[in-house]
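Input/output pair, single chain:
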Amino acid sequence: MRINVCARVAVAAAAVLAVGAGTLPAAASSTAEPLARYYDQAIDWQDCSLGPDDTAGQKLDAAGARCADITVPLDYSDPGGRTITVAISRLRATDPAHRVGAMLLNNGGPGGPSLEMPPGMAGFMGKTAGKFDLIGVDPRFVGRSTPLDCGWDVGSMVFSAGQDRAGFKRSVTRGRDLAERCRRTNGDVLPYVTTRNTARDMDVVRAALGEKRISYFGFSYGSYLGQVFTELFPGRTDRMVLDGVIDPAKYSQTLLADSTAANERALGDWAAWASARHETYGLGRTPKAVLATVDRIEEAAAEKPLRVGKFRVDEHFLPIVFFGGLGSDLDAARAELATATRTLARAADRERVTPKPWLAGILASTTTEAGSHQGSAQAAILCGDVATRRGTESYWRAIQADRATAPFSSPLTHNITACEFWDRPAEAPTVVDNDVPALLVNATGDTRTTYSGARQVRKQWSRSRLITVPGANQHGVYGDYGNACVDGQVNDYLATGKLPGRDRICDAR
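Output:
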């Protein structure tokens, strides 16, 4: 998951799409008849903006992108039944003479919108972008696709167990409540909100675009989605980049458990950074003093929820702020977390405070109903994929086992989620046991998708190559991190289709 769990349109009816290398004018000619109407559908491209407040749509329009809705079956075993729509955007190739084909994009999550990605990706790709139609896809029930909202009063199923058993019991109650709300409001669609069905939707998008194969760029959870697609539809991918790589064998309802140690280390690194800037942030002159400030804030939130502007922040949601801030070790990201920590420290002293935009955004999306749509979709995807009844005590034991060495991380990364109370998934998780040529990218200190995942996928996919960024506490390296070595290697591969001859190392700075 990139940051969420963490997470990166005026044409009447385009009857004929531009056909370049690697495309078929009639992509569904060999499709089984029951799905032919989906694979053969014409795409009605429209402007992307939905109104004056739609900044994402306006940016897409300004970049020359167009948007459309693709019709897909809710249940692929019943293609004649209920349908839903999947929202896509397209920024067309500007170098048609050297066009490679369409590249589908996913920004992670699960539950992360990806419709708005093409302009940003085009900026990172430079001239290479001209070879591709860049396709942003909001997965089923995410963003502008047919929505799913369980009517939660919070926006996240991920929260900390807190400091003691009473806090953990509250977590159990909340997880059960979130699951029940989804079952009550959307029980008829929950069995179909899965990664496997999103991968099937991708293949419908591929065919509707007129492509024989697609290229793919997936961050974080998007790496798992890409792996599932290659397993369900072998031979239908061209160039593939996975950045922040999930080990599919560890994809579970406690997906973050593997990141416990990485987050603890990242917190220590950030504390060292903040202590060197005590004159700016006032959090402590030593790393130990900064960590003591964090502890003091947590203790105050456990005693009584902090008042942060219009938000109330208790011990269950406070750690999410730090978790979100530790996704990057760039100075700008560390400064945002330091500023937020200063605000929270004042709130812990029971002062009246107003959060800056970064902190306000996290609190709105996690502690209020404003994040219900995305949080509901995230839960539905993860729980629909891998929900298992482990027993509530198993989570408490896991928290306690790591609490001594990871007091900050373990109550969050090992905590119970709504998946414990979800109905059994309609399909078993995908077993990824193929071998695909792909370019994998991971930082060794990634706080979401740990480096071990990238190494495991590299081992399984013997034809792939791995770019490693040692020493970086960074989730999602390409583009945002500004690493010329990584960006250059990725762009060379996308431009030529040739993987590096060996795995590569790119220094963090």
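Confidence is low (pLDDT under 50) at residues 5-30. The first helix runs from residue 36 to 39.
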